[in-house]
């Protein structure tokens, strides 16, 4: 079976060398030495000023909403994983959807201003599939309307601006990442909050540990979403192989582009690098999408409909309608993407797709 992705497992010895340190210290969670070491290594690797590890990417977002004291409405994209919307709902915030740009598949920055009201407290764009949003344009709208910008950067590990090499995580007020097992860099379950604002990260650090500020001091309402030491150990071991992972995925991406017609492959944005976190293809319509999917499944290949359904159709978001997102959602498929996918497998997947197309 070829699944849409395959967790990168470092060789056991590499993981065990960190696990041995956990056994030696008898310290399993609550800001341990490996959590600190991974924080430092990720800050250095990603070239960001402040980074706080969390237990997953969803709670990272919810902690940020709380730290920024968001209220009312948050403008966001309907084309994402459900956590982008559900995290708002869990925090008592109303998602207001703005449709996506057909090329980047990200929130269309030109449509944001029209949806801002007196209740809007923030904009929550997603760098979907690791493709950078129009960060400058979004910031202009946010500044003009005095609202915060939180990037759901769950897919955007090590994405950098083409002109400066700067991390995409440095834009907006804050970015959140997911380090789930299905991500190119992972800590089993995990996530991170990144911001240039050290005070915001300090506030988030308090919030992820129940609001505890000292031995017998609690300041405000917090939650528990710290990263444990076993997750940090996995992250440290995976980070040792990050070049292999990223180079391998770039080669898979190149081969798909060689075997598949460019009409199937959504345009890449050109302002930032591609981290090859996903390989989406766009079929003519939903019927063709399902035909291709079923043909792949019949051959034990499991692509995924990332992201279907369009989030503006969720039952709990009220009546909202984003036609471009609905259209894209109905005909997109993410093909298997991971560094150890074989050339022969990429060829086989491409052949099956080609045989089902009416090009
Ligand atoms: N924002 C965005 C834009 C996101 O995409 C996500 C998560 C979040 C926020 C929230 O972050 P977290 O709270 O999750 O940290 C998966 C992931 O669970 C989820 O993290 C991810 N996005 C989403 C896009 O994909 P599913 O339901 O597709 O997972 P699942 O179990 O079907 O796994 C997908 C594939 O990954 C499998 O076919 C094979 C591979 N896999 C998976 C697991 C669990 C492995 O090889 N090993 C594994 O252990 O959601």
Layout of helices and strands:
Layout lengths: L11 H14 L7 H14 L4 E4 L2 H11 L5 E4 L6 H8 L3 E4 L22 E5 L10 H11 L2 E5 L21 E5 L12 E4 L3 H10 L4 E3 L2 E2 L10 H12 L1 H18 L19 E4 L3 H13 L24 H8 L1 E4 L7 H14 L3
Helix pairs in contact: 1-7, 2-7, 3-4, 3-6, 8-11, 9-11
The structure holds ligand T4K.
Ligand T4K binds next to α3 and α4.
How would you describe this structure to a colleague?
Helix 1 packs antiparallel against helix 7, helix 8 packs parallel to helix 11 and helix 9 packs across helix 11. The chain has 11 helices and 11 strands. Helix 5 links the parallel strand 4 and strand 5. The relative contact order is 0.17. The chain is α/β, with parallel strands linked by helices. It folds into 2 domains: 228 residues, 3-Layer(aba) Sandwich (Aspartate Aminotransferase, domain 2), CATH 3.40.640.10; 115 residues, Aspartate Aminotransferase, domain 1 (Alpha-Beta Complex), CATH 3.90.1150.10. The protein is globular, with a radius of gyration of 20 Å. The strands form 3 sheets. Strands 1-7-6-5-4-2-3 form a 7-stranded mixed β-sheet, with helices on both faces. A two-stranded antiparallel ribbon has the order 8-9. The mean pLDDT is 97. It binds ligand T4K. The site of ligand T4K has 22 residues, from helix 3 and helix 4.
């Amino acid at each position: 079976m070829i699944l849409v992705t395959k967790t990168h497992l470092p060789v056991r010895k590499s993981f065990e060398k960190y696990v041995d340190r956990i056994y030696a210290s008898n310290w399993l969670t609550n800001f341990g030495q490996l959590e600190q070491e991974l924080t430092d290594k990720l800050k250095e690797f990603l070239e960001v000023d402040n980074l706080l590890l969390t237990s997953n990417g969803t709670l990272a977002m919810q902690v940020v909403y709380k730290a920024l004291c968001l209220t009312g409405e948050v403008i966001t994209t309907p084309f994402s994983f459900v956590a982008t919307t559900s995290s708002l709902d869990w925090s008592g915030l109303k998602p207001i959807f703005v449709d996506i740009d057909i090329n980047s598949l990200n929130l269309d920055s030109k449509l944001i201003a029209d949806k801002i009201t007196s209740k809007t407290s923030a904009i929550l764009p997603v760098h979907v599939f690791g493709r950078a949003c129009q960060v400058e344009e979004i910031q202009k709208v946010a500044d003009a309307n005095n609202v915060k910008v939180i990037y759901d950067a769950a897919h955007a590990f090590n994405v950098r601006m083409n002109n400066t090499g700067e991390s995409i995580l440095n834009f907006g007020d804050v970015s959140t990442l997911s380090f789930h097992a299905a991500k190119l860099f992972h800590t089993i379950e995990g996530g991170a909050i990144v911001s240039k604002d050290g005070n915001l990260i300090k506030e988030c650090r308090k919030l992820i540990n129940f609001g505890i500020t000292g031995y017998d001091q609690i300041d405000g309402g917090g939650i528990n979403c710290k990263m444990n030491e076993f997750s940090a150990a996995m992250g440290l071991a995976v980070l040792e192989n990050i070049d292999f992972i990223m180079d391998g995925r770039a080669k898979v991406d190149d081969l798909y582009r060689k075997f598949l017609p460019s009409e199937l492959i959504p345009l890449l944005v050109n302002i930032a690098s591609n981290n090859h976190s996903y390989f989406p293809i766009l079929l003519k319509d939903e019927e063709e999408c399902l035909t291709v999917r079923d043909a792949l499944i019949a051959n034990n290949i499991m692509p995924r409909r990332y992201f279907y359904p369009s989030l503006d159709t969720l039952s709990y978001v009220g009546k909202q309608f984003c036609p471009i997102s609905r259209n894209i959602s109905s005909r997109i498929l993410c093909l298997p993407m991971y560094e150890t996918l074989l050339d022969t497998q990429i060829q086989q997947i491409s052949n099956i797709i080609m045989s089902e197309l009416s090009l």
